[in-house]
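User: Hey, quick favor. My workstation is busy. Could you predict this chain's structure for me?
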Amino acid sequence: MHKAAFFTFTTMKKIILPAVAAFTAMVFAACESKPEIKPERETINPEPVKTYQEIVKSEETTDTFNVALYETKYTFKYLIKISFKGIEATDSLRIPNLNYEPMPEIKQGKVRPSCIVGFLDDKKQFMEGNEVLFQDNKLKYHPLKFYDVSGGK
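Assistant: No problem, here it is.
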């Protein structure tokens, strides 16, 4: 009886130990390896990836405040197209490389008409970048926050 139990334990040890080691190695490899985000896109989507529109009514007219984000050749840079009352402008949004696909976002601003252009972090929290607004009959675009990713040295 003791010999059979010992034989079973030894046999199981020979089978299970390599399987556990292989499984552990796969788990560590999966955790350590993230797909590399390429600095340049292979294909560029010609359609806006995010848009913001706000209808502005006055006694005389109804106008639409438009802000749209477009992909560029560079993965972490977006073209911003702005239009309102026949005025058109462009600028760019740079998103820091945080080792995941960038997620640009546009939120409504505090004054009318305006919006905040930024991105979502890895926890889907909105990170402000730039404010776009129409004030004193001018389109204005100014940075709210800057983000930097360094190597930690």
